[in-house]
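Here is a protein:
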Amino acid sequence: MIIRNAVGPYPSRRANDYIVIVDPIGPPKKCPYNCIYCPMGSTVVKTDRVYSLIPPKKILDDYSHIMEKIEYGVKIILFNGMGDPFLNYFLENIVEEIKGFNREHGLDMELWVKTTLAPLVYHDRKNLLGLFDRVYVVFDSGSLDDLSLINDPVNHVRIRDLVRYISSLDIDVIAETTLVNIGGEGNWVSGSLELIASWLGRAGVKQVLLKTLSRPPRSMDAKPVSKKILYSVREYFIEHGFSVTVLWEGVKRGFGRIVLYGEDDLYSLLLRRPMDLLELHNALELPIRDIAYLLSKLENSGLIERIPWRTRIFYRGVYRR
């Protein structure tokens, strides 16, 4: 089975559009964090060390495969996937290769990235953030207790280091805060919110992307907060001077054409995003029977697993060496 490091088109709530995901990390999951809510499961290699991972040629081959298949019908690339993109030593070269491909094909694409910042903070790679049009920084915790419980980072990560780093940047970043309900407590209670807002204020952050769990988490102890709580937290941040975007509803824009998917493409997508049958049907615009057939083949090969969560059955890719 081929594992592709560019997947899509994928319906993204943050863009309210379809995007292509570029994953410069690849399986197994490698990240400085082991977030309790992560839909990709546990972090296998917990590290903030920068080292040689997926080479630029492999990324470009996978990216061009996807883009030609969808006839260049998307406008946003999100660098995300199975860990923090900045762990890959080749990331700058990968971005240059993709930008070169886009210029050659007359594509006007925005490049977005989601990061913990840890590989940059502790390994002096500040200039790399300037490669991207939009930077999302995971910021779920205002205290050491919350950081340990919700994000479970490598031992030396400290909130003050992240804040000091953000405040030194000459670009704006967007704090991405996922609200988690853990036994009736979590980072949505007043004390935790006050600390998050205080740290973000010190960092000079002006924008917050607010969301809660929408897929099966790493730990079933983690639950989503209600819509009422989510919008109450939104009002709290607005009152404290932040511009807030809430992710709650699904993507409203249809892709507008059928994308022919094979087993490799579907498996590569499910490694990064657990999805249910109806969601796959809406995302890929393929008949349910065709998607069910592909899912059954992958499941029989042990390459995906079923995860009952709330009232739905999700399918998640299983990495096998």
About this structure: The chain has a mean pLDDT of 92. The chain has ten helices and 15 strands. Residues 56-69 form the longest helix (14 residues). Residues 6-317 form a domain with the TIM Barrel fold (CATH 3.20.20.70).
